Amino acid sequence: MSIMQTVEIPASRRLTIDVPCEVPIGRAILTFTPASADRETLERIEARDIELINRYAERLNQEALDVLSFQSLEL
């Protein structure tokens, strides 16, 4: 799952993040990319993200199945 949102960074450089309930609890990776980044940089970041997703797809799928199995136990 990937969520992208453009935000304004205030002078304090503090952000408060509300995570949707569909996102499983646990570790996550936050990536900050300046909106002024050129197209080539954004394409490189996207290619890196796809490579990471492919590298960890099996583990991510297993973690998602584990979360779903716990949710069905709580019903």
Write the layout of secondary structure elements.
Elements: H1 39-74
What do these coordinates show?
- With 75 residues, the chain is mainly α.
- It has a domain at 46-75.
- The protein contains one helix and no strands.
- It has one helix at residues 39-74.
- The chain is flat.
- The relative contact order is 0.10.
Provide key terms for this protein:
single chain, 75 residues, mainly alpha
So what's the overall shape? flat
- Please write the string of helix (H) and strand (E) elements: H
For the report, how would you describe the main beta sheet?
none
Averaged pLDDT, please?
83
In percent terms, what proportion of residues is strand?
under 5%
Low-confidence stretches: none
Determine the number of helices (DSSP H or I, runs of at least 4 residues): 1
Query: By helix and strand content, what is the structural category?
Result: mainly alpha
Using DSSP, what is the number of strands? 0
Q: Helical residue percent?
A: 40-55%
Radius of gyration: 16 Å
Distance N to C terminus: 24 Å
